[in-house]
Hints:
- α8 links the parallel β9 and β10.
- This protein is of the alpha/beta class and 269 residues long.
- It has ten helices and eleven strands.
Amino acid sequence: xxxxxxxxxxxxVCFVQIAGVCTVPASAAQGKSWYVPRSGQTQPTLPAxxxxxxxxxxxYMNTAKCDKDDDRVLYLTFDAGYxxxxxxxxxxxxxxxxxxAAFFILxxxxxxxxxxxxxxxxxxxxxxxxxxxxxxxxxCSREEIAxxxxxxxxxxxxxxxxxxxxxxxxPEGRYSTQALQCVQExxxxxxxxxxxxxxxxxxxxxxxxxxxxxIIANTHNGEVLLLHPTSATNAAILKPLIAQWxxxxxxxxxxxxxxRDVDGxxxxx
Length: 269
């Protein structure tokens, strides 16, 4: 009996030690939703409760720029889950206007519209990870997060022959510290945004004039724009928007530049 009790206690100690390693603090696993209050044509202030994302390779705006900087730059990013005719139109405008962009894609787009995804890379755009299936990662284990991202990498490489660019965006902006850590450990930089608007519902598309007014009214230096290329409104207004942005003195940068600038500003002189 005594020997059995000792074995049971030893097993219990081992279980507790393993559980202690595997358990993630509740605060690290707690999900948050990304948002940035609008501040017109000046750079917005990130809410204090979201600054915890920044130490884990997260970016939302070129904070190395300022409102009065002579070099005015915007970063166009698109969350693309499927094609409905408008993604191709968006690509047509970007090609015609010689504007770079980043596309955060899902597995469905790779499998169903491989030629379109390959075109993104062929024409010089970044093609980035938005998870394989638009899953909320805040309730997932590290293994599940890693599997989701690497599964999309594999599908992308097998269908297009390209290697996926190492930028990631959380579906619906839902994140946790644990998920950020895991994404960073996989070699990704997380890209949030400093402006987005209600463009995702194909049944409730804003009018072209209202959309242009809202977007221009909130254009600020260093802005990362979150747009959905399935939006018929976005497809119709992108060309005149680019013309207006250029008239305002803006150029269009890449996420490589964004991260380099922000990281460089953090490095002591």
